[in-house]
Amino acid sequence: MAQMDYDVIIIGSGFGASVAASQLAKHNLRILMLERGLWWNTPERQLPNYFQAGNPGYEEFRQRRIQYWPRPDNSNGLDNNGLLNFLAVVRAHNSPLATIAQSFLEGENPPEPLYHYHMFDNIDIICAGGVGGGSLIYSNVTVEPHHEDDRYPVLDRWPRNPDGSQLLNNADYKKAKGWMEKYRGKLNKIVTKTPIADANLNVDNLPPEFEFLYLAKSRALRFATNKLLTDPNPKWREEIVQPWQPLTLQVYDYENAIKSTIPIAPPPAGLARTGKVVTVTTTAAHSVDEGVEVEIQGASAPEFNVLGIVTEELTPTSFRLTTDNAGQDGTSGGGNVVVLSDSAKNKAVCERQGRCFLGCLPAARHTLNKTLINPGFDIFAGPRRSTDLISLAEVQDIAPIGNDAGHSGWEISYVMKDGTVAIKRAWTVVVSAGCLGSTKLLLRQRNRGRLNLSEKVGKNFSSNGDFAAFARLKPPDTAPDDLRANPIYPAFPSKGPINTCHVIFKDARNNLFINVEDSGIPAMFSGITRTVLDTLEEIRPTGIRRKRKALNSGHLKQVREMWTKGKPASFTRLKGPYHKPGQFQTEQEMTADLFFFNCQGTDSGDGVFTLNDSDELDLKYNMNQYVFTKTEEICKEITARMCADYIPFPLSEGLAGILPPKALTVHPLGGCVMGRSASEGVVDFHGRVFNTGPSAPEGTYAGLFVMDASVVPGPVAVNPTLTIVALALKIAPHLEAYAINKSQHPEVRFP
User: Fold this and answer.
1) Across residues 79-87, what is the average pLDDT?
2) In 3-state terms, what secondary structure has residue 737?
3) Is-cis flag, bond preceding 490, omega within 30?
4) Residue 100 above 60 pLDDT?
5) Per-range mean pLDDT, top range of 78-87, 453-462, 480-489, 547-556
6) Which backbone phi and psi does 166 adopt, to 5 degrees?
7) What three-state secondary structure class fits 627?
8) DSSP letter string over 460-511?
């Protein structure tokens, strides 16, 4: 029998990969995770214990495979310019600027990218690079699609289960939320300027006298869409199927420090310590999960009063925890187990800094790198850690060992940062490199003749109907008698989480759903946002020659110089007099009058990826779809109720007509979609890759799974993270069963 380096190799470290690792870690399997990026962290917190000397991540620290979120939150200084530091960690693909960082930094060692910006003919796509995948740059919105009549209408276009039911149901989404809360943290609603501790106030519907507590941008969307609901035209009352409500975010916010207190059995049975592991027996059911941080207080032996992570549930009244607090082996008892809240455990709450997708400096946003190193989950850390990580490893090929029909395992080749090519073998492979990464890998294997794959590889790409636009609010004090004077000015999009609230619309005639959210403009982007929008406003009515001339003069010349010369644009200098409120603006004030729309919708989901002559992705996508026309109509109506002026997103109007218009998405889906057969999809409903070779008609490759956004069969018309996790959890039991059956590891644990 062939010798394997690992039982399972997981390609990627995002949501699909983390679900796979979390479920496989329960069985003592030998797992390897390959990630093309490196670690990202906040400079405001000490590095986690995982990276300290003597722990598994110390080598990553020693080799400088940790970088810090782009900062500071300014864009006007001559030195240490935040915007330039952000652009330095963006890598462009399919562009003459192969690495944007090279345009800004001197020296031969630019930073590793956090953002991968893929440019195609009609659409641009932003993806993440780093341990934690897309969670590093998402705003942590965790919602399910619109639900009505005991189903999810947006999923009607997807393939159905053999019994005719929808591929995902309410129980699947409930399970996904359970995974999110266990492995990431409590879901919170953050729509107010500060956390609301008053139990009499519900942030879903604050009374008028307390509406001032809402974040300005949250209040603006609430005000405008409530106006639509009372509009004389009944159209909007019919189309708004979910009125304004806060989004649920995977972000720590204020809550009581102590979640629960559980009595410990008296000595000597209550507590037993061996090394770093303490076995705890309680007098009542403890109801604690693995990964939860607890504190022992009041034990009869003071050295047993420790802080630790629950690593194993034994019985309803006993569990084991791992602690880094010093202590000796022995027994004790008495006192209490104190279960800490998420905010107390992490010593972090949302500070409303408005930079979620840039990286949360107070570390209140829950990214998956935190999940992977939590010792309670035994993935990268913990007493029974199961998974090795190789970062800065870009997978090139996936090949079966042996012939296509009777292969015995898989061989994965990958390239390291220094150009070294390495190979690892495993019985099972999980492709979780994201929509673009997984699609590119499978297209490459098919084109090179290594795998017989469905003709659906690369097809059914969806942008999830992503759409953006601005509204420019009018200050009320500039025209006191003007009926358009704005009761909700300013919007302050640079304050609060990036996304806080949403409204869902339904176009019943065309069976479309559109989710409208507020969005943030980080302070780092305030100067360039103001400059670009003001310049485009000036040149929009002019001819094409005048517009092109603008590229070489005025504001846009300054912006262009930023990109080509590596120095900040000299935005308009603010001088006195001091009695004018518009002088000496903060970054927040520069964009105070802007509301930023962030929308998702039911696009056609028929984009097609191919590989070009350079073995890189090409994408054909139709941006002239009714869903975008409808979304723009909705945004314009909301803008009117805000007493504001509508401003198209610069990319979608081609910089006021200077360039061809383009769509932009941060939620790419599809390319390796699920289907009932190889004629309908690339993988089956168990995530197994179809083998279309003559020796296996309509069969699947043994031990080859795909678990990520690429399997999603179509748009979900909301932020897709929860749906990706729901599908991954649907695949996970079949992955576990196969991996356990093939494992040669003697200590494998069965479910």
Assistant:
1) 77
2) helix
3) yes
4) no
5) 453-462
6) -65, 150
7) helix
8) -BB-TT-EEEEEEEPPGGG-TT-TT--TT----TTSS-S--EEEEEEEGGGT
Q: Which residue has the tokens 């190799």?
A: 9
pTM reported for the whole predicted model: 0.91
Two tokens at 160? 């159905």
The CATH class of the 258-340 domain is mainly beta
Q: Measuring CA to CA, which residue among 662, 715, 669 is closest to residue 513?
A: 715
DSSP per-residue string spanning 296-349: EES-SSGGG--EEEEEEEEETTEEEEEE-S---SEEE--SEEEEEPHHHHHT--
Residue for token pair 């492979």: 429
As a whole number of angstroms, the distance between CA 515 and CA 119 comes to: 25
532-553 burial code (b ≥16 CB/10 A, e <16): bbebbebbeeeeeeebeebeee
- Which token pair is 508? 């019943």
- DSSP letters spanning 169-217: -HHHHHHHHHHHHHHT---B---BSS----TT--TTS--GGGGGGB-HH
C-alpha 574/C-alpha 197 separation (Å) is: 40
Q: Is the pLDDT of residue 101 over 70?
A: no
Rounded Cα distance between 354 and 343, Å, is: 19
Buried-exposed string 636-662: b where 16+ CB fall within 10 A, e elsewhere: ebbbbbbbbebbbbbebbebbbbeebb
Instruction: Tell me if residue 262 falls in helix, strand or coil.
Output: strand
d(CA 503, CA 518) in angstroms, rounded, equals 9
Tell me the HSE value of 447 on the side-chain side, using a 13 A CA sphere: 19
Q: 241 and 504 in contact (C-beta within 8 Å)?
A: yes
At position 223, the amino acid (one-letter code) is F
Residues counted in the chain = 751
134-143, 228-237, 468-477, 665-674: least confident range: 468-477
Q: How far apart are CA 269 and CA 640, in angstroms?
A: 69
Q: What is the pLDDT of residues 469-485, one digit of tens each?
A: 999 998 766 544 444 44
For residue 16, the Cα-to-chain-centroid distance in whole angstroms is 11
